[in-house]
Amino acid sequence: MSNKRLLKFLLAISLLCLIAIVVINLCTSLSQSLKDGITAEIVGGGIVGGIVAAVFFYLQESDEYQASKMKANSFFEQKLLLDIQEAMDRGPSLWNLSGANKFYFDGSLVNPLYDIYQSNFDQINNHHAYFSKNELINKFDEFYKTTRKGYVLGEKMENLVYQNVRSDHHKRGLISANDPATSSYIRGKLFADMSDEELCKYLEWQSVPERAIELYKTFEKSKDVINLISEIKEIRETLITQIEEIKELRKNSFKA
Fold first, then answer.
1. 103 pLDDT band (50/70/90 cuts)?
2. Quick one: pLDDT band at residue 180, thresholds 50, 70, 90?
3. 69 has pLDDT over 50
4. How wide is the angle at C-alpha 169 spanned by C-alphas 165 and 175, nearest 5°?
5. What is the C-alpha separation between 13 and 46, in angstroms, rounded?
6. CB 232 within 8 A of CB 157
7. In angstroms, rounded to a whole number, what is the distance separating the alpha carbons of residues 206 and 201?
8. Of 140, 44, 164, residue with least CA distance to 88
9. Strand, coil or helix: what is 105?
10. What keywords would UniProt list here (predicted)?
11. Radius of gyration of the chain from its Cα atoms, rounded to whole angstroms
12. Nearest CA among 183, 148, 157 for reference residue 169
């Protein structure tokens, strides 16, 4: 921004000098030698003014840069590190069977840490612009990108669950209002390793409907589902490893 202001200022000086030179040279009452002398003074003054302006804007820009850098570092030390520590103190997110791509990363710190990055996206990237070698920020950025890939896989799994449960219910002539509970049951069995007893309490079922059990068994044997679950678990393990690295880097940042 300062460079733009400097350029505008220099252009303004140049324009004023040019106008002054034109006016001087159009003045017939002045001798040519006097005109040349005044023109030289104007040009010299313009050059000196330009140099002074350049130095002023450079110093101003340097001050602004240092202030922004200090603000970025303050965000890192006084907010981001504390947010990460709080998330770790609270522990893993609970399994949320209501669905969405985040479900497949519940039971860990993946979702809480992702939310921290997402809510501080601009400040984190601003900090990276000043401190590009900060290991914690770089690892956090890697974690964020990996999580987004995981969420895409979660969306694919959600689509499989939704489409198959809905199709099965239509074949049975059941209303779509039954879909959410059955979908939650499938998620809990396939991925969260929850027992039927736990799921019945969560879904407020007296017992698991036979149709839900049959559909789960079909899902369990589906090649597409097996492959997708394998991909999700693989990326989940990668994220868990990255979180452990973030924990260690956070400790080192506090020590520093």
1. very high
2. confident
3. yes
4. 120
5. 6
6. yes
7. 8
8. 140
9. helix
10. Membrane, Transmembrane, Transmembrane helix
11. 33
12. 183
